[in-house]
Amino acid sequence: MSTILVTGGSGTLGRHVTDRLRTDGHEVRVLSRHTRPYAVDLREGGSGLDRAVDGADTVVHCATSARGGDEKAARNLIAAARRAGVGHLVYISIVGVDRVPYPYYRTKLAVERLVEDSGTGFTVLRATQFHDLVFRVLRGLAKSPVVPLPARVKDQPVEVTEVAERLAQLAQGTPVGRAEDMGGPEVRTFDSLARAYLRAAGRRRAVVKVPLRGAAYDAFRAGGHLAPQHAVGIRTFDEYLTTRFDGGGARR
After folding, report:
1. For the whole model, what pTM was predicted?
2. Dihedral angle, C-alpha 108, 114, 120, 126, nearest 10 °
3. Which of 17, 43, 68, 183 is least surrounded, with the fewest CB atoms within 10 Å of its CB?
4. What pLDDT is attached to residue 247?
5. How are beta strands 146-150 and 154-155 bridged, if at all?
6. Which of 102, 213, 94, 225 shows the shortest CA–CA distance to 150?
């Protein structure tokens, strides 16, 4: 079996990728800012990064930061991978990064291009938003008596463990370049997702659809972040909610 480094391997997606690869018998190294022995800040790079990458056959890049710095982190990782002779670089991206001019999407697209131009065999998988992300957004919005939602916007949430399964499969194969996009099983209006959350949480809130302006909103409204032709996910958002609440693992 091979040695695989998973950046962000303790995060929402990375921990599931790590578990699957270890189950399949691979030696897996977890790189994150706080996980030893490979506690590395990718934005800084350095000898710790070289040590983490040295001897790895494949690198699965799941690490990302809402605080910015993803492009610098990717450059450092790619440089270290090239020095170590890594044969396969796998990157998780988002459906629509080339169609929706949202700042975080632009960053993800820029990292995609760095990966493609790395000179290393690569695979890029784009997925729609995770159930967990939609859940956290709706829980935050529902803290007020009125839940404001962007008007005429749909979403296609996907189960994170299913994305992890697909990413692990790709990591164990040969580089394919752009893999087929991966979307959740249902394309739903955002207000229907919000009402499903409120029912599951036992909350009564007014839902108000707010028209917004801007190129990013127009692209979301046009469905640039959706992949209805790749609705390969199995677990629905309603099923996810049932598990979250019945399992007692979600704050209402």
Report:
1. 0.95
2. 20
3. 68
4. 61
5. unpaired
6. 213
73 domain residue, yes or no: yes
Please give the Cα distance from 194 to 155 (Å, whole number): 11
pLDDT tens, position by position, 78-111? 999 999 999 999 999 999 999 999 999 999 999 9
Answer whether residue 30 is part of any domain: yes
The more confident residue out of 162 and 45 is 162
Domain span at 172 = 3-246
Task: Name which of 134, 249, 250 is nearest 192 in CA terms.
Answer: 134
Number of domains, the chain: 1
pLDDT in tens, 169-179: 999 999 999 99
Domain-embedded: residue 252: no
| Cα(230)–Cα(121) distance, integer angstroms | 24
Distances from the Cα of 140 to the Cαs of 102, 110, 196, 252, in angstroms? 20, 29, 15, 10
CA torsion angle for 13, 17, 23, 27 (degrees, to 10)?
Answer: -130
